[in-house]
C-alpha cells in the first residue's frame, strides 16, 4: 500500500468506509480496484469490490501513477468534489448563527459523529472543528476592531466573559495584541478542494498571498513568517480574491485555464520576487531550469540561489515552480511532492495536445 499512515485511518477502517460508502472520508483516501484498473472516491455508488482486490492511496495522482483510471461514476478527479453533505449543512448552520456554541451532544443531535467531524477538520483545515470555530469568532472580532469596535465590545461579541481571556486567545491566534489589531493587515484563509488533495489559500485586500497543499511540510513555517515578519493577522474568512482563485483552480484542473488572472501580493526579498516573476513567464505546458532562470536574471552562476527562491514560493500552481526541472530533465524537488509535480506537468501537456488536435 502507498499510504500516509500518520494522516489516514487504519486499513480495516478504510475497508469499512468503502463498503458503507462513508462520505466522512471524502478526500481522505482513494480506493483502487486491481481487477478493473479503476480508482474511486470512498463514497462511490458503484458495486463494491472484494476487499482483497483493493489498495488504498492518499492522493489521486498516486492512483494515476500506479496505472489506474478515474471512475466515470464518482469522478475522483472532479475538483468540484467538495465537502460531504453533512459537513456542508453544519457549515451553513455556523454561518447562520456564528455565536452558537456547539457541544458534542448538539452535534450528535444533528446526526454528526464528533470523532468523524474532528478527523475531517484536521484533515482539511489542519485544526479541530472547535478550534476552527474559536478562530473564526476571533477573526470576526479582528474585523470589528479594525472597523472601530472597542476591545470590550469585540470580546463580548466573541462570547468571552473575561477580557483577559479574550486578550490571551486573540494574541495566541493572531500573534498580536487586540490593541495592535487595528493597524494590522488581515490575511483571510480558506480551504480548497482539488484533485490533488486539499489546499489552503490566503489573501489580503491587495491579492492572493499563499496557495499551498495542506500537507506541505513548510506550510507552518511559511504562515509563521507571514505573521511574524510581515505582521499579518491570519483568520478564517473569504474575500473576492479567494473566490477567484477557487474558480480559476477548478478551470485549471479541468484543462480549460492556462493563465491565472487573480491579483497577487508577494512579500519577500527583491531577489525572490525577481525569481518568482520569471516563474510566471514559463509558458503553460513547457518547462525551464534553474540555470535558465539564473541566466535570464543576468546571474548565470546563481542556480543554487534561484533554487532556494523557487523553494520559498508560497503560490503553488499559480507561480508554476512545478515547471522548473533539473538540467538533466529530472523532476527535482517540489514542495507538494514529486507525484503532484508529475501530475501537473502531465495535465498541462495533455491540455496542450488536445488544443493542437482541435486546431487541426
UniProtKB/TrEMBL annotation:
Catalytic activity: a 4-O-methyl-thymidine in DNA + L-cysteinyl-[protein] = a thymidine in DNA + S-methyl-L-cysteinyl-[protein]; a 6-O-methyl-2'-deoxyguanosine in DNA + L-cysteinyl-[protein] = S-methyl-L-cysteinyl-[protein] + a 2'-deoxyguanosine in DNA
Signal peptide (from-to): none
Active site: 321
Protein name, as recorded: Methylated-DNA--protein-cysteine methyltransferase
SMART domains found in the cross-reference section: HTH_ARAC
Its biological purpose: Involved in the cellular defense against the biological effects of O6-methylguanine (O6-MeG) and O4-methylthymine (O4-MeT) in DNA. Repairs the methylated nucleobase in DNA by stoichiometrically transferring the methyl group to a cysteine residue in the enzyme. This is a suicide reaction: the enzyme is irreversibly inactivated.
Subcellular location per the Swiss-Prot or TrEMBL entry: Cytoplasm
Comment field (misc): This enzyme catalyzes only one turnover and therefore is not strictly catalytic. According to one definition, an enzyme is a biocatalyst that acts repeatedly and over many reaction cycles.
HTH araC/xylS-type domain ranges (all copies): 111-184
Principal location: cytoplasm
NCBIfam families on file: ogt
PANTHER family: METHYLATED-DNA--PROTEIN-CYSTEINE METHYLTRANSFERASE (PTHR10815:SF5)
Cofactor(s) annotated in UniProt: Zn(2+)
One Pfam family named in its UniProt record: Ada_Zn_binding
E.C. number: 2.1.1.63
Enzyme class name: transferase
Family stated for the protein in its record: Belongs to the MGMT family.
Sorted UniProt keywords: Activator, Cytoplasm, DNA damage, DNA repair, Methyltransferase, Transcription, Transcription regulation, Transferase
Amino acid at each position: 500500500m502507498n499510504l500516509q499512515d500518520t494522516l489516514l485511518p487504519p486499513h480495516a477502517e478504510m475497508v469499512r468506509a468503502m463498503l458503507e460508502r462513508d462520505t466522512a472520508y471524502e478526500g481522505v483516501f482513494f480506493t483502487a480496484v486491481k481487477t478493473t484498473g479503476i480508482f474511486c472516491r470512498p463514497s462511490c455508488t458503484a458495486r463494491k469490490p472484494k476487499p482483497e482486490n483493493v489498495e488504498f492511496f492518499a492522493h489521486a495522482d498516486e492512483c494515476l501513477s500506479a496505472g489506474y483510471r478515474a471512475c466515470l461514476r464518482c469522478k475522483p478527479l472532479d475538483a468540484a468534489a467538495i465537502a460531504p453533505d453533512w459537513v456542508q449543512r453544519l457549515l451553513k448552520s455556523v454561518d447562520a448563527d456564528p455565536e452558537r456554541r456547539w457541544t458534542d451532544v448538539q452535534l450528535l443531535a444533528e446526526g454528526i459523529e464528533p470523532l468523524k467531524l474532528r478527523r475531517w477538520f484536521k484533515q482539511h483545515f489542519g485544526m479541530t472543528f472547535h478550534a476552527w470555530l474559536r478562530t473564526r469568532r476571533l477573526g470576526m472580532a479582528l474585523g470589528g476592531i479594525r472597523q472601530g469596535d472597542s476591545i470590550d465590545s469585540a470580546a463580548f461579541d466573541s462570547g468571552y466573559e473575561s477580557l483577559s481571556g479574550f486578550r490571551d486567545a486573540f494574541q495566541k491566534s493572531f500573534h498580536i495584541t487586540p490593541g495592535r489589531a487595528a493597524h494590522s493587515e488581515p490575511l483571510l484563509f480558506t480551504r480548497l478542494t482539488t484533485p490533488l488533495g486539499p489546499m489552503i489559500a490566503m489573501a489580503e485586500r491587495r491579492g492572493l498571498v499563499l496557495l499551498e497543499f495542506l500537507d506541505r511540510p513548510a506550510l507552518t513555517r511559511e504562515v509563521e513568517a507571514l505573521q511574524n515578519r510581515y505582521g499579518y493577522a491570519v483568520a478564517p474568512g473569504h474575500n473576492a480574491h479567494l473566490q477567484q482563485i477557487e474558480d480559476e483552480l477548478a478551470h485549471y484542473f479541468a484543462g480549460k485555464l492556462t493563465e491565472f488572472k487573480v491579483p497577487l501580493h508577494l512579500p519577500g526579498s527583491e531577489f525572490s520576487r525577481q525569481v518568482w516573476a520569471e516563474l510566471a513567464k514559463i509558458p503553460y505546458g513547457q518547462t525551464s531550469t534553474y540555470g535558465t532562470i539564473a541566466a535570464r536574471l543576468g546571474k548565470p552562476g546563481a542556480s543554487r540561489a534561484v533554487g532556494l527562491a523557487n523553494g520559498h514560493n508560497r503560490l503553488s500552481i499559480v507561480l508554476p515552480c512545478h515547471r522548473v526541472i533539473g538540467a538533466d530533465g529530472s523532476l527535482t524537488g517540489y514542495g507538494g511532492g514529486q507525484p503532484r509535480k508529475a501530475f501537473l506537468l502531465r495535465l498541462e501537456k495533455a491540455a496542450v495536445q488536445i488544443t493542437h488536435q482541435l486546431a487541426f
